[in-house]
Structure formats: C-alpha cells, structure tokens
Specification:
about 350 residues; Ribonucleotide Reductase Protein R1, domain 1; alpha/beta
Amino acid sequence: MNDFSLVDLGMRPFFQQQLSLEELESCQLGRIVEQHKSEVVVLTAGQSHRFSLSPALGVICVGDWVLFNSERITRLLERQSLFQRKAAGSASKRQLIAANVDCVFIVSSLNEDLSLNRIERYLTLAKEAGAEPVVVLTKRDLQSDYEAIQQEVQKLNRLMSVQCVNALDPNDISQLASYCQRGQTVAFLGSSGVGKSTLVNGLLGRQLMETGGIRENDGKGRHTTTHRALSLMPGGGLLMDTPGMRELQITDAKEGIKLTFADIESLADSCRFSDCQHENEPGCAVNIALKNGDLTQRRLDNYRKLLREDSHNSATLAQRRAKDRAFTKMVNSVQDQARTAKKFK
C-alpha cells in the first residue's frame, strides 16, 4: 500500500460531512486496517501509524475511520455499516467484527459441510449491517453437481448473487471483480476450512494468507487467519479477512431476520390472525405454504430459531446495559457525596 489516496481507502461524502475545518487542521484522517489484541494500525495517504487501544474511545474495529494526532487517536467517526455478533462464550457482551463494509462475501464450501442454516445466519448479519451479501461457493472443481447446489442456495433469495468458484482459477476469481472496485470494501464471513484464505490470495494476486488443509477426521479446515486486516486489491478495492467464527450468534438483528426471511414475513401478513403463531391456527398462510410445498420446514424452523436466539441475546444485553448504567449512577452518587462532605469540612 504505497501509492493510494483516501478515496482508495474508501473515503466518501458520508464521512467527509462529519469533519470540521478545525479538526482537519489539527488532526489527520485515517482508516483502521489492522486490529490486534491491544493495538491497531491506522492507514492514511502516505503512511501507516500504530496506536495502543484506549478505553476512552470505546470499542473500535477494522474498517473504522478515525482522527488522530502524533500521540493518539482523538475521535471515531460515525459508521456507515457495522458487523457485530454476540461475543463467543459471553452471555452479555457484543463483539464488533468489521465497520464500513460495502459488500460481504459469504463463503461456503461445496462439500458435505455446506449448511443452508449457516448461510441464512450470515445473511442475517449482512442484512442487519446494511451490506450487500454475495454467496460464494468454493471448491467448484471438487463438486460435479455444483449447479444443483447453487440452485438450492439461490432459492434462499432469488435476487441474491450466488457464485460458484474454484479459488485457484483466475477466470473464476474474475467473476467477483465487479464487487471489488476502487474504494469499495469487501469483507469475508464463513467457517474455517471453506477456502477463504485461498480466495483472499486469489483476489489479491499474491500470497497474503496461509492456507490450511482439511483435517482427515472430520473434513473441516484448519483455522489459518488470526487477526482482522484490510488489504488493497489490484483493482482498487479493499479486502477484509476475518477469523473463522465457530460460535456465531446474533443479537439486535430483528430487522436482518425480517429481510433474510422476507418470504415468511410476507406470508405471516396474510394470516387470518395478527398474532398467529403458525402452529394450528385456522387461516394460517404459513402452514398453507408448508402444505403446498412453497415453504420448507427447515427454513421455517431456522427462522424461529434465529428469532428466539435474537430475542434471548438482545434481552441479556439489555439487562447488562441496565446494570452498567445503575452501577455508573451509584459510583457518581458516591463521588458527589464525597465531594460534598469534603467541601463542608
């Protein structure tokens, strides 16, 4: 990344409008291109800078635009899009995945590990974040019946782009070029071993990510990406690779679920009763669609599962936020009392 501008990094009016002349005179503008445990790398036109993470900034992630000076990051700009999930192993925290992403490649392998449920889960995340989802089915060279599988995935959304590729074939890689234009940020979501790293290397035209083989005992891949990073592609786009997400749970994603399962939402609007649970109620449009074969039981079950998961995780997070607010209020009250007592001594 030597010869580039802020536009190449994804700068656009949405971010420019957040800046004041005073800030532009006293600070530099850059984008976070690497995120590690305790520090981030910020890239601006001409050079990169490394900063330690400061609790005062709040939670930041790869893709964020920030203002900084020679000593520290001073401000985080409002995000245009944000991918987040329930943190792995946590009952009450969220983890930010990527910010200001334009398109997300949902990568799945054309082998026995392909899961429509998992793809719908990723679609929910993409829809909630406001990024364009593109399903990329890898290892086409190892699956003779790939077109039939592609059609099954396409049924999830007729308007969604579904691409079958051999990540080692430059001609297949070129199918994805239209999503990787100058200043466009593309993120990757997908389980370990589905070929994300091979696809990353193919799009970049160089070996950036290590590729891992498939474990013989279960056919799953070895996890090869250890941190989130943005890289500039030859065509001008920005490519973000993320570690495999083995415990991907959703939260605060009700709108994403509605958009991912728009067919079921539309059917529900036609039910006789507004509070229909789609069980045994008369005039249930969802059950009629099931009987007619217009809707699969698998899809309906996954829709219900994601709604339950979102409801549970969102409620847990709300309780945590309320608890944190109460604790902060108590601390402030104690400090006020201490200052008052000191004043009248």
